[in-house]
Amino acid sequence: MDEQTPTALTELPSWLLTQSASQAHRIVTESFAAGGARAYHFRLLATLVEFGPASQAALGRRSSIDRSDVVAALNELEAEGYVERSADPADGRRNVITITTAGKRQYRRLTNLVGKAQEEIFAPLSATDRTRLTTILGKLLAYHQE
Q: Where is the HTH marR-type domain positioned along the sequence (predicted)?
């Protein structure tokens, strides 16, 4: 084995990444649950805030949520009054989803929860390290999504 080959799990970047991702997922999930929401709710509301009204299919693609999970989460958000569905005037078979005023308030509330979760997850890192990590993770994600 050469000197650069990892010999322990804790020397494998992929292992460290998956273990860190697991911890981050737990912290974010617990944060949203404490606020009576789910990560899918945040992702869908954030996508609507960023891109505006969209079809269910477009929301799924933009938020990387499976089609069946999009429908279930949108049903929950609609029941709470956070989104509205309406027929697409260009294609009556398709629904257009729009965030409501209450949905925008919920998005801001969930943004605060995710912000607190980010602080907990990345507490041991300096602002410079957080920026560097975000850049590196962005590069990895972009490379593997191509």
A: 1-142
Burial class of residue 45 (count of CB atoms within 10 Å of its CB; 0-12, 13-18, 19+): buried
With left for phi above 0 and alpha for psi between -120 and 50, is residue 12 left, alpha or beta? Answer: beta
- pLDDT at position 72 is 95
pTM of the model: 0.83
E-only strand ranges, the chain: 54-55, 83-88, 91-99
Residue 74 CB-half CA count within 13 A:
28
- Confidence class for position 90, pLDDT limits 50, 70, 90: confident
Domains of the chain in sequence order: 18-145 (1.10.10.10)
Buried b vs exposed e over 15-41: b needs ≥16 C-beta within 10 Å?
eeeeeeeeeeeebbeebbeebebbbbb
Q: What is the pLDDT, as a whole number, of residue 6?
A: 61
